[in-house]
Amino acid sequence: MERDMNLQHFSHRHPLIFTKEHVDGGKESIRCSGCAKPVFGPSYGCAKCEFHLHEICTNLPSEINHPFHRDHPLVLLSNPPSGYVECLCDFCDGSCNGFVYHCFSCGFDVHVSCALLPPYVTGEFLELERFSHKHQLDFIEKHEESVCCFGCKEVISGPGYGCSRCEFFLHKKCSMLPPMISHPYHREHPLILLTNLPPYYSSCACDFCHRTCQGFIYHCPTCKFDLDIKCASLPRCIVEAENHRHRFIHLMKPLSFICDACGIEGDRFPYLCTQCQVLVHEECRFLPNTIEIRDHCHPVTQFSFFQGISDSCNHRCGICHDEVSVKYSGYGCLCCNFIAHLNCAVENSVSVIKTKGDEFFDSINDIGEADTIAMVIKHFSHPHNLTLNSKVNDDKLCDCCMKPILEQFYSCEECDIFVHTTCLELPRKKQHPLHPHPLTLLEKHPNFGGLFFCDGCHQRCHGFTYSCEQCEFNLDVRCGSLSNILKHKSHEHPLVFSQGTKCSACGYVNEGLYSCSDCNFALDFACASLPNTTRHKNHEHPLDLTYQDNADQIYCNICEEGIDPNRWFYCCKACDFYGHPKCASEQHPYIKLGRTYPYEAHPHPVAFVHKAKGQPPCSKSGNPCKGLALKCTKPNCSFIIEWCHVEILHF
What we know:
This protein is mostly beta strands. Helices cover 6% and strands 32% of the residues. Among the domains are: 63-117, no CATH class; 121-175, Wheat Germ Agglutinin (Isolectin 2), domain 1 (2-Layer Sandwich), CATH 3.30.60; 180-235, Wheat Germ Agglutinin (Isolectin 2), domain 1, CATH 3.30.60; 530-584, no CATH class; 596-650, no CATH class. The strands form 16 sheets. A 5-stranded antiparallel beta sheet has the order 9-10-11-14-15. Strands 30-31-32-35-36 form a 5-stranded antiparallel beta sheet, with no helix packed on it. The protein has a 4-stranded antiparallel beta sheet with strand order 1-2-3-4, with no helix packed on it. Strand 22 (257-258) and strand 23 (265-266) form a beta hairpin. It is globular, with a radius of gyration of 31 Å. Residues 117-130, 308-312 and 351-372 have low confidence and may be disordered.
């Protein structure tokens, strides 16, 4: 059958081009947007959007009748329904990251792989042919009696497969184990899945946990190396560590040991680095490389157990003043002759300062499980209860950070208040590198209308502010959430807070920036917080933040002035549309225009507005209004005043 080289698929707005064989030259595999599995063979794709579909996934039926859900047909959707916070497959409980078969009556969802790929639909029941058993295995939705899986030797509590003739049963996950794997415990050769012991074995022990293997094993016939299927599971055994150059193995047996990171005894399941021969607590494996501590002006960096301490360095802890052993890990300052015990530094961390009884918010409803999000909360910033919402509403701004509502949020049913869930978790007090005093989070600045000037990005803002009343210092929550170390996608190295350098993004010199000690690269607060994409009223497509261009000269399509191709700008490559960051962003992006306030100098309520040149004259100066202004909200009242005159008149 002759295939179409160009395909218009319902799941994508652009035509998809056929590719006979996909060759991936990157570090990560290209994944199918339908089944979320890697794409290697024939496929269709859109290079502009990095959208790919297996050839088989382009021919999925739009509606199926499935034995997992016999009451209603399931309809194929290219994305989970819009009202979902997260879509889970009702068969395997995995997240649905691609296409999903959905029942609109019951809200029932099934992965593409669970719905159509093995096991597959054959009339009234599902069947699976496996190399592990000579007879056909039937799908069993629920076992009437307790049965044991022949793969892992554990009880099957949910759906699985079985041969009623032989009483042979398998978990769904055990039925789909790969027949061959490459494993970091045995890098020399691949391991082959065996359902029975090799004929030259009388018994078998796992070479990792040393327990007797019962059930399926992964085996190397060359080296006689064996892993039971539990130990062959990479996520449970091999883990990464931020503060160590090698991966750790999680030991599955209780063991008394001295932690090589903190020097304190442990008696649980340690983590082992086989190359360095060190054992650490689970909590020590997660410690960050760099932290801020109380009463020290610089960030401190962790020195590892295999690096040790220089003989010229002071060996006394700068916090408890006891000796710091060279055998264990700790934190030290790269600028000063200062070191501290690992636990002393962590206990005195002030990256986030918390005071006793200073809770962020209190749940009203019974949460049940610890990881369940409360539907109704009480927050210090608002007198009424806030209710959880999951429906995205990009027409609304978060009253905390002034960014569009593009994620889960809380709102007040009585007031026009919207706050991101993440914003409600901001700490009430914190230390910031731009200011020597602790900053307090305020839900509204005391100035008129809550408007304040951010000392980080130098913009006028509404929303919550981190404030020092003593110094009249203010940061919006975007700048206030930045710490001493910044990782930005525009640069390969971490950026450290520094003073008086030129910003590589805009070219301006600022007092406080983030710079790279290895490169001549720095970012000021305004550029570091620029969004990756933005929209402008003069262009229909989103504009992407671009760090540089090879062109000799480019021009801003908004102000029609030149853009330095070595500085940051926004562009739409498809349309050759360019814009300076200030031109592409809306005027006063962090001010909530339209909100009304009482104004002492005028009898009626007024609202913040932005006026272009040529608008009605200012009631104070008589000149045409341009920029931020206050306008009377009462019909037939022509009062309007520019913000510069509001400050003179009102304060």
